[in-house]
Write a structure and sequence with these properties.
This protein is mainly alpha-helical and 318 residues long. It has helices at 4-11, 34-37, 39-58, 61-88, 94-106, 112-115, 121-136, 138-144, 169-199, 204-212, 232-268, 281-303; strands spanning 22-23, 30-31, 157-160, 162-165. It has one domain (24-314). Helices cover 63% and strands 4% of the residues. A two-stranded antiparallel sheet has the order 1-2. Strands 3-4 form a two-stranded antiparallel sheet. Keywords: Membrane, Signal, Transmembrane, Transmembrane helix.
Length: 318
Amino acid sequence: MRNPVFWTYLLSLVSPSSQATAYLPDSCDLVGDSDIYGIGLRLSYYLASFSAIIALFTGNKSSMKDCLKGINVISFAVLIILIKNTAEGGDNYPLLEWLVIFPMILFPSCLLIFLISYEHALVCGCFGIIYCVFGLLQPWVYFTKLHQGAKPECDPKYFIFVFIDLYNPHLVRFFKAISIIMCMMSAPALCFSLYGIWLGRKTDEELKEMDSGSKGLLLSGIDIDDVEGLSVAQIVAIVEYWNGKMMGLFGVCTVIVLIVWSEKTLKGNEVDLSSASLSGTSQLVPFLVGLFTFLSTASSCVRNRNRSRGSEAFGLGT
């Protein structure tokens, strides 16, 4: 059940929607694209995010990797539809689509802090490419598609703790500045992501051997020689343990905030998604992907709970 090919096949059973986000004729009522942010897809992202938090708290890297695999599959499909809707022009309203999706794609990047290693280079590289393409396209959206599909008489808004006019000059300048920064950061990150995919051609044994010769990202600022009586592996485990706890706590707060941002933005703009409910395959299948990921992660973490209990998990008592 952890094979991403299985999830890709499952998602291929979904019937695509032909409705991009757009205003109805002679109206300010918005009809949303359920293929991008339908209830099933949103729940899938949220469940995957909470799965990642559970994995962070328990230090279960295998589960974190599985979460990222599932997110990669869904994010790749969503990104393709986003680009398609934006490029088609016409009455499509891509700005709102990108703003709703952004928080959902943002959180999984936190996982990379704990997965960056030669052993996990391939899955991190795949996610990195998706995230980098998303970042590289931001100026295209905010400088050339800002008003596509908009209506002067309508009042779209975005929720950032409070509702803000989507075309508030200060907010627009902020979005444009962020889009440039994201584009500049994504370019070099794309090179590292491609390198990660290139490393995927090596065997697991070769990658683990490469990891064994490196202290790793989390120990880059620690002088191992100053820590007496502990092996490198034990120090790595301790640092990862406490970083996992802190990032897990940070993740809970972050996910809740991002969920509120997305849900409030959709509700504040009264986006109509009634045509796609969980009773249809287009929403049921992504929801099941997220649900199975969550249940699988929780089950895996429970089975390995003793490995995350203080110093005994690191073999310090032996």
